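step 4 of 6: structure.
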Amino acid sequence: MDKKGILIVVSGFSGSGKGTLMKALLAKYPDNYALSISATTRTPREGEMDGREYFFKTKEEFEKMIAKEELIEYAKYVENYYGTPRKYVEEKLAEGKDVILEIEIQGALKVKEAFPDTLLLFVTPPTASELKARLVGRGTETMDVIESRMNRACEEALGMDRYDYLIVNDDLDQCVEEMHSIIRGEHHRSSRNSRFIEEIREDLERMKQ
Amino acid sequence: MDKKGILIVVSGFSGSGKGTLMKALLAKYPDNYALSISATTRTPREGEMDGREYFFKTKEEFEKMIAKEELIEYAKYVENYYGTPRKYVEEKLAEGKDVILEIEIQGALKVKEAFPDTLLLFVTPPTASELKARLVGRGTETMDVIESRMNRACEEALGMDRYDYLIVNDDLDQCVEEMHSIIRGEHHRSSRNSRFIEEIREDLERMKQ
């Protein structure tokens, strides 16, 4: 089987708990996965460290990275750039690690376009009412905030079928196993193992003679 | 997630050990899987029981099943019919079991055409030389037999990339887990969960109002 890593994009509803899920997955299987670190032009918050939460860049540096095609995808939110540096991702894939990008649907689709083998995973709570409960919070949010969160969830739900797999985040441990098992399974896709198939075919032909 | 079973076709090189693999999978996970039983017009061999190894039919009965579209696929080898009865498969799928058909590539592609959601798995030894060793046997086969087995393996290899996943049969226990994990993963495909996606969308829209 192919030993090259798979590029994985994880998206999901805000409130789906995907951040916690990623952390648990990496803690349990540190040899299998690498989490991509984004580059950004926004100011570091207290406690954030360059190269851990983000690669912090000036606007000029970031635009140079864009020009040199050093980013797999990037976007601008509220005057700040966010993007995925290509080098780290390619290095880790070559090492045989599955590299996880935690980005939103627009970025996910851009990555899939550039790398058609990308695996797209969408994390969701088991039901809409549980999602709503998480979005509404503990009665401390204003109606405006709740409305804007619900609108966003409706938009996010429209993109769900563009993803390859749905990960239902109910019980955390079970969810980690589910995700790990889906990714392990993907390594066995015949479309990801064309070299293995070619080799078996050539060897059998040669042995026949 | 969708509770309906998945229709699974398992093919593989002769000598890949897929029969043993199926038995081990069903023994370990009897609640998850059902093995489809073929209908045939060939004479029962000693020890074979109707409804266990095969459903034994007369030529007339079999042709009536064809006419009534009671078979998902069928083929004729050496003057005998072999086919997959539809009723058993559909009953087990509705019960939520994943139903496994162990058939060859021509049948596999026919099933996939009739049921596009069918999952196609191909069982292979890890290398061509290991496959050859199994095909050649223990030095007791004539050159003719070996040549015909090698020719057949070369043909079978040509169809490998029509399958969704490759299952490398090296260690049996590991292989059972691999296969189970691939199938469990498939249940999470977004394309197999369109109803779940629809429900989340509708519920979120309704809750927004």
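step 5 of 6: annotate
 - The radius of gyration of chain A is 20 Å.
 - Chain A has a mean pLDDT of 92.
step 6 of 6: archive
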